[in-house]
Description:
Blueprint: H1 3-10, H2 19-57, H3 69-94, E1 98-102, E2 107-114, E3 117-124, E4 132-135, E5 144-145
Amino acid sequence: MTEEREEIRRNAPTKFFTVDEANDLIPALEGKLKACDQILIEIRSVSELTEDMEWYWGESINEETNPDRTEYLKLEKEKSIRIERWNNAIRGIEDIGVLIKNPDLGLVDFYSIRDGQVVFLCWQRGELEVRYWHTLEGGYSGRRPLE
């Protein structure tokens, strides 16, 4: 058994979706992904600030006498809190039974059965409905239109 197949087996779906069921979830997914976008913007903003401090001060940013150390530690804590919020938001989406393949692009897969085989219904943010499917190993490049 290949590593990829073993990973799929370990993460066996808890729910299979019909095309209609997947389509019914799209408005909620759009909203949840938009909320994730906002959290990601906040993470990137705080990360830029801490990276600037690290660039300017180097290793001395961690010294107790550094005048920016308190602010740096505060920003690092804020970043950790936001990362945890983002992880929780992603887990909340995946708890629905879908797989988020790429949160930045909004690529979401729904386990489904097609011709007796387990496949993914594939949806990308901005699409009005699920229009594609692919094998479990196929990925985005293997997307095929639903008939």
